[in-house]
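[job 4471] stage=fold_predict status=RUNNING
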Amino acid sequence: MLGPVILAASRSDKMRRFVSAAPGTKQVVARFIAGESVDQVVPVIVDAADKGLEVTLDVVGEDITTVEQSHEARDAYLELIGRLKDLGLGTRAEMSVKLSMFGQSLPSPTTALNGEPSGLAERFPGGHELALANVRPVVEAAAAIGTTVTLDAEDHTTLDSMFAIHDELRKDFPQTGCVIQAYLFRTEADARRLAANGSRVRIVKGAYKEPAEVAYQDKAEIDKAYVRILRILMEGDGYPMIGSHDPRLISITQELARRAGRKLDEYEFQMLYGIRSDEHLRLAAEGHRMRVYTAYGTDWYGYFMRRLAEKPANLLFFARSILTKD
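[job 4471] inference complete, writing structure tokens
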């Protein structure tokens, strides 16, 4: 299977250098990455809004190694929120953040910016307090312009910390969302807890290389788990966000929503920028809330490789491109 191989390559510095230097890389990356700066992504947001689409914005770059870099990540999101405010687009765009980018994976214990630990330090030694301290002002700024933040799921070792930070943020900002991954064995239980609490929950299949001890490895089993979890969310008290490009799962979503008596504005579809764009427009035209996951920034490598892993057929397109000149 190519997927696990590509995911392994996403952690390789040697492979990062090779891919970055390949002559056709820029062309292919542009399919998945909306730009490198806020200025470049603003027209994408405006265009989506004009078409009746909403967006969630991801400043790529989770592989940080210093506290200073975590502060830079925070500031990049605050800059983005400031631009959304100026453009009056706060209600059309939300943010997606990876807590690793905010310092979650850094080894040194830290305290919150106000000098008072939140209580997570005792449960989660390391950079968890730093991640909470960095993400809180982003969530506050987002709320001030009428939008919100969703905490992206990363590999399974980070999830207990992510959910704890999610719970902490929701005390003051209950609209804060989180992501769950269907391929993990634990996710059905997580979905029941989140649905009961009325959370905004994005369900995805999962895009990290996980061991057989914690995750389904077979695509059919992952799809079955996705449907089971989707049913839990649709029948619960939360707001489901369906992250999938799979036509079958989209149809199942519509049927489960109908059975649960949900109106079109009581759940939404989410798809990646650059993938199945015609489907984005079709769903929006039918009255569905359709949100496009739009990534931008210079540190695109890890995000890009996960997109290839999710659909290895994209690798053929990429392979042909790196053999050509710009």
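[job 4471] summary: The beta strands are 54-59, 93-97, 149-151, 177-181, 200-204, 239-243, 268-272, 289-296.
[job 4471] exit 0
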